[in-house]
Model the fold of this input.
Amino acid sequence: MSQTDRAGSHTKYIAELQCFLCGTAVGSFEADRKPLPSYGVWHPGDGSAAQRVADWRQLRCTRCGGALYAESIEAIAEPETDEELRREMPRRGRPPKWLVEQRRRASL
Done:
């Protein structure tokens, strides 16, 4: 399945995170692929601002401090946006040689 189709929409996956110990719904985690990578955008359930996280598995329950798990994962197709949080997600893998060389020349 393609991340972007002809209409310019983007598929994102939103997982509701719950606590293993007390069962409290703590918030949601947004990623651009499935299975969920460790990095993405964290949306706390208390309404505070969304933020990028390097590893959602390190997040803890705000009520009891327990570990979190993904209760349900929902796929949502939305139009492309220039949201700063998504643009800063790290890319997977090693950069191509031509890009490494281009960056090296630009830094000199």
Summary: The first strand starts at residue 9 and ends at 19. Helices lie at 84-87, 97-107.
